[in-house]
Write a structure and sequence with these properties.
The protein has a domain of about 100 residues: Nucleotidyltransferase, domain 5 (2-Layer Sandwich). It has four helices and seven strands. Helix content is about 30%, strand content about 25%.
Length: about 170
Amino acid sequence: MIRSRKAGRRNVETAELNITAFMNLMVILVPFLLITAVFSRLAVLELNLPGSSTEPAEPQDQTFQLEVIVRADKIEVGDRNQGLLGVYPNSGDGYDYEALSNKLSELKRRYPAKTDASILLEQDIEYDTLVQVMDRVRISERVDEDEQSVKRFDLFPDISIGDAPVTGGGA
């Protein structure tokens, strides 16, 4: 009986694993997945927190400091040291981004070396509004004379974000 078990094991052949069909599937599937994959491009803007406005300013630090204050009913453009330079109330369509762009372009012509700006927001300002204002502060778009292309110019690309100061009319 012992001999019959050993004899039976000698005659059993080892089964080979046939992976040809699997390899064919991989050869087709991998290029298909690579071709149809959607590669997303992420754009990251580095933002800074503005310095405290309660800190005493040194005499040599009395330079132009651009602040764009977004309120529920208007956008204010000003200098931290000089005060307001322009107020743009909302129209029936919402914020006046075009007037904001024109004012920022004018300020860039007056201060060409200036690259930083602070955007200060009241509470409950929509995220889309913040993005629209950031885009207008960072870049100016002008249509070329032949109107075949749009040229973009950097305005104030170094943006800081913070909370808007409370107006005096509030309780």
